[in-house]
Write a structure and sequence with these properties.
about 180 residues, Fumarate Reductase Cytochrome B subunit, elongated, mainly alpha, two-stranded antiparallel sheet
């Protein structure tokens, strides 16, 4: 399999970035949902949020890498079989997914740094608190983070359903290309 994207399919780097981000998003959502229900005496009360923050910051770095990779190795063109509505929807949908990902990560950063302390990434490095002092920063960012996370997961699910629709109903190469296959 080729490393870079071609006109017919996605390359290995794009495929790994796509599926890795998808796995991280759903994993972080599940972890976040589980950890907010932990009580004060849970052994995971400190560990789960630290894990969530560390993975979230690594995801931010991966998303920045993914943006750079899109310039280095542009995506294959949309299929000729797509109508105008499908083309506009695909571009808008991908744009919203990127925007949603960055927005949910920024809101998570604002929650975690509201008290002026940085965020430790697995104890290996510390991301400093650059933005603090916004009125009710932790509460507002927390509400935004929760709603954006739900929206992102729901929209990602719709994205997956659209890929399955292309594969099983339209019988086009949309999903096959993201699996590294050309049809």
């Amino acid at each position: 399999m080729q490393w870079r994207n071609s006109s017919a399919r996605y390359g290995l780097v794009s495929i790994l970035l796509h599926w890795g981000v998808a796995l991280a998003v759903f994993g972080l959502f599940a972890l976040g949902w589980w950890m907010v229900g932990l009580d004060y005496y849970s052994a995971w009360r400190q560990t789960a949020p630290s894990l969530h923050k560390s993975i979230g910051l690594i995801l931010l770095a991966v998303m920045l890498l993914r943006l750079v990779w899109r310039f280095i190795s542009p995506s294959p063109p949309l299929l000729d079989s797509y109508g105008r509505l499908t083309r506009v929807s695909a571009k808008a949908g991908h744009g919203l997914l990127y925007l949603g990902l960055f927005a949910v990560m920024i809101s998570g950063y604002l929650i975690s740094t509201a008290d002026g302390r940085g965020i430790s990434v697995f104890g290996l490095l510390e991301v400093p608190a650059l933005i603090t002092g916004i009125p009710d920063q932790e509460d507002v960012a927390g509400a935004v983070h929760e709603y954006l996370a739900w929206g992102l997961v729901i929209f990602s699910g719709l994205h997956a359903l659209a890929a399955l629709k292309h594969h099983f109903i339209d019988r086009d190469a949309t999903l096959a290309r993201m699996l590294g296959r050309a049809r």
